[in-house]
Write a structure and sequence with these properties.
The protein has a domain of 280 residues: Orthogonal Bundle (Proton glutamate symport protein). The chain is mainly alpha-helical and 421 residues long. It has a two-stranded antiparallel sheet with strand order 1-2. The C terminus is likely disordered. It contains 19 helices and two strands. Strand 1 and strand 2 form a beta hairpin.
């Protein structure tokens, strides 16, 4: 007899459905038999956010060190071209998100910040103080923050720019070690990353509970008015993702790879559908390889290297989403972010997206890191949980499509080798 099992995304949607009446029908001051439901919502949501923040430092540090050290370990011209595409396409994705969120201002409703509408507790003045401390006075101050005087202190103070810089430098020098020590270091950091991925997956099992608490808390404080900014955020992300996939990546395919974008999109259809339904680029990898080889005509010796590498470190949709989410939260607080702060968001989103590979909703961890990097409260993360799961499905298929574009473009420069293989 087949056992009935509810998949994680249905559990999250069920939590959202239950959170709406739980929040709307139970005001914050309600007390039932000596129990205050709002306090329970606050506890469940707060515990989930604290757990996410706990994972940030070791997850991102191990991912960045492993990726940089692996890239320096002699991946050759094929890997160099793939890395160039990954960095370039992710950077364009983040800039696209930055453009759309500044164009539509989803955190501004009727000319006013949506802070009270969505039930954020911190005042704009308090947030501005944290923002000033974290961001530095100008762009030069930002670059100084990237080189920490004490990396342990930077980690303790959640100064992720300093931690990322140290992780990149650490990874760059691992390949210079003797063979035995190099292998030991690579194995250690790979092990740390695997453990952190497993812990993240375990935490995501409890995501429905955290989503219920955070959404119920917001609706209890703000009512139906909290939904309007969320819809604006939702459609801003969708528009930005669609532009990046259909315009930016199509242009790269056409002008760099000499590939017909429409035919490539049709060829990758089954893989994109699987990426959308599973929300995991890792789970979609076999189907992506099959579509590339049998439908798109990409040689196996190219797709077999570039696509798995992309599934690990190339996360265009995730990077774009992180950027829009962080700036949306800042807009809700009524903050007019300076160029240096927005540059920080772009930089951290670009780097952190490599550390959340292939796990459904794991980008929430990276978003909490971006908020800490620019001095925004973690409570803002609770705003986007109501729509995160649906957007996770969309951005995953963008990630999958970007990996396929990388393979198709890189293959253009390696066709003679592929034919002789």
């Amino acid at each position: 007899m087949r056992r009935f099992r509810i998949t994680p995304h249905w559990l999250v949607l069920l939590a959202l459905v239950l959170a709406v009446p739980a929040g709307l029908w139970v005001p914050p001051d309600t007390v039932w038999y000596g129990i205050r439901p709002f306090a329970i919502y606050d506890f469940l949501g707060g515990l989930f956010l604290r757990t996410l923040k706990m994972l940030v430092l070791p997850l991102i540090a191990s991912a960045v060190i492993g990726a940089v050290a692996g890239a320096r370990s002699g991946i050759g011209a094929l890997g160099a071209r793939a890395m160039a595409f990954f960095i370039g396409s992710s950077f364009l994705a983040v800039l696209t998100g930055l453009f759309f969120v500044n164009l539509f201002h989803p955190g501004i409703v009727n000319g006013a910040p949506a802070r009270e509408l969505v039930g954020l507790s911190a005042s704009s003045t308090e947030v501005l103080g944290g923002l000033s401390r974290a961001s530095g006075s100008d762009l030069w101050g930002l670059f100084l923050r990237m080189v920490p005087e004490n990396v342990v202190a930077a980690a303790a103070q959640a100064d992720m720019l300093g931690v990322i810089t140290f992780a990149v430098l650490y990874g760059l020098f691992i390949p210079r070690l003797p063979t035995g020590l190099r292998a030991a270091q690579l194995g250690f950091w790979q092990g740390v990353n695997e453990v952190m991925m497993a812990m993240t997956q375990a935490v995501m099992i409890f995501a429905p509970i955290g989503v219920f608490g955070l959404v119920a808390r917001s609706l209890s404080m703000a009512g139906f008015s909290a939904l309007s900014p969320l819809l604006g955020f939702f459609f801003t992300v969708l528009a930005a993702l669609a532009f990046h996939q259909l315009v930016t990546l199509s242009a790269l395919l056409l002008f760099v790879g000499r590939v017909n974008p429409w035919k490539h999109l049709q060829a990758m259809g089954p893989a994109l559908l699987m990426g959308f339904t599973t929300s995991s680029s890792n789970a979609t990898l076999p189907k992506t390889l099959e579509c590339l080889e049998t439908r798109a005509g990409v040689p196996r010796n190219v797709s077999g290297f570039v696509t798995p590498l992309g599934a690990t470190i190339n996360m265009d949709g995730t990077a774009l989403y992180e950027c829009v989410a962080a700036l949306f939260i800042a807009q809700c607080y009524g903050l007019d972010l300076t160029f240096s702060v927005q540059f920080t968001v772009v930089l951290v989103a670009l780097v952190s997206s490599t550390g959340v590979a292939g796990i459904p909703s794991a980008s929430l961890v990276a978003i909490s890191m971006i908020l800490a990097a620019v001095g925004l409260p973690a409570e803002g993360l609770g705003l986007i949980l109501a729509v995160d799961r649906l957007l996770d499905m969309v951005r995953t298929q963008v990630n999958v499509y970007s990996d396929s574009c990388a393979s198709a473009i890189v293959a253009r420069f390696f066709k003679p080798e592929a034919q002789g293989a």
